[in-house]
Amino acid sequence: MNTEKDFYAIAAARLALCRLPGLADAALREILTRFTDPRCLFAPGRLPDTIRGLPSEIRRCLTNAKGVISSEDHHWLRQADHRLIAHTDSVFPPALIEVTAPPPLLFVRGQSDSLLRPQLAIVGSRNPTPVGMEVAHQLARELATRGIVVVSGLAAGIDTAAHRGALSAEGTTVAVLGCGTDRPYPSENRRLAALISKTGAVISEFPPGTPPRREHFPRRNRIISGLSLGVVVVEAARRSGALITARLAGEQGREVFAVPGSIRNPMTRGCHTLIRDGAKLVEGVDDILEELPLLNELPSLGDPVGGEHVSSRTPLNTAQKDLLMSIGYDSVSVDLLVQRTQLTAEQVSSMLLILELEGYIAAAPDGTYTQLGDTRD
Q1: What is the value of pTM for the model shown?
Q2: 83 Cβ contact partners less than 8 Å away, ≥ 6 residues apart
């Protein structure tokens, strides 16, 4: 029976293998499949007999290995909420084993058991509209309330909204990184990563200290889709990482969902392309659950403390309602609203402030405004 000291030593040996130069993932998977306890590979004098039968290129890597890992690696391994799991471990997510070229190792910060629960991914633009942010937040919140783990990539924009939506329901969310778990990217999401790890997990196939690189993100995306029963795309341009994730999901046999939007919004063109290609159109959580009835059987979390995401709002007067109708669901400027309503700029600005404070609209960084959610009285 392995002691805690044994588990640490096994993890250290696995990390040492991960650090070997020239050892490809396929070779690492083969080694970990053969040696569930790889400490024997670093025992003096035993290596030639131990590795007999392995391909020559793998034997060459192991023969030249010193098995030394850095003090930073040891520091990562010693932290209580950190775990290094191999594809052969019982706690490795079974859905991920099914994908082409599964990661041989997963570095986990947080609760590794959250990886064994039913999961659904929400991904999208790093530069979404306020409506896109609200949709992602609300979908994630409702899914988490129903006991579903929300997976995303911790990126700015839709990913961040999805993670925060799940957390707002006191639910579970998993963030998959394209860098080491000790270097969350973007840096402004470090606190969010810490919050996620308390009830869910922050995971990566890249060892500690690995910086974010462009080529890492397609690899990360295959894990996001591989973990999930389906992928929901909320706002994505025609060329985007979210569409790569959706394509990988289709190749992996997962369901693909897309939220439609305004034909004037370039951030919804990728979603419309997915829908034309057969993705399920999503207007709410029920559209997802129709395709994945298994998720209906999960125990619900109930309505968490805090109630509805949008607080009760003061009823609008006639002028405010007319202005809201003029805004619609496309981003509009103050100048355009002045043209549509024949009001003065001062009148429009005053009412816009009230509508924003009451949660009827959202202001974008470029100074335009968009209607939020269902605003019918």
Answers
A1: 0.82
A2: 11, 91, 108, 112
Task: Tell me the C-alpha distance between 229 and 151, whole Å.
Answer: 10
**How would DSSP label each residue in 218-229?**
HHHHHHHHHH-S
Terminal Cα-to-Cα distance of the chain (whole angstroms): 64
- Considering only residues 277 and 71, tell me which one the structure prediction assigns the higher pLDDT: 277
Structure tokens at 215: 């080529």
Give residue-wise pLDDT tens across range 167-181: 999 999 999 999 999
CB 152 within 8 A of CB 175: yes
Domain boundaries, the chain: 1-69, 112-297, 318-371
The CATH class given to the 318-371 domain equals mainly alpha
Q: Is the pLDDT of residue 376 over 50?
A: no
In total, the chain counts a number of residues equal to 377
CA distance 9 to 88: 17
- To the nearest whole number, what is the mean pLDDT of the chain? 87
Residue type, 225: S
Q: What pLDDT is attached to residue 289?
A: 92
Nearest to 127 by CA among 31, 316, 268: 268
Considering only residues 129 and 141, tell me which one the structure prediction assigns the higher pLDDT. Answer: 141
Are 115 and 93 a contacting pair, CB within 8 Å? yes
CA–CA gap between residue 47 and residue 86 (Å, rounded)? 21
Q: Hey, what are 58's tokens?
A: 């793998």
CB within 8 Å of 300: residues ≥ 6 apart: 145, 146, 147
- In CATH terms, the fold of domain 112-297 is Rossmann fold (3.40.50)
Classify residue 146 by its DSSP letter: T
DSSP secondary structure, 233-284, as one string: EES--SSSHHHHHHHHHHHTT-EEEEE---TT-GGGHHHHHHHHTTPEE-SS
pLDDT score recorded for residue 306: 42
271: number of CA atoms within 13 Å, CB side?
A: 28
Residue 299 has pLDDT above 80, yes or no: no
Q: How far apart are CA 24 and CA 346, in angstroms?
A: 64
β-pairing verdict for 230-234 and 105-110? unpaired
Whole-angstrom distance, CA of residue 347 vs CA of residue 260? 33
Whole-number pLDDT of residue 325: 85
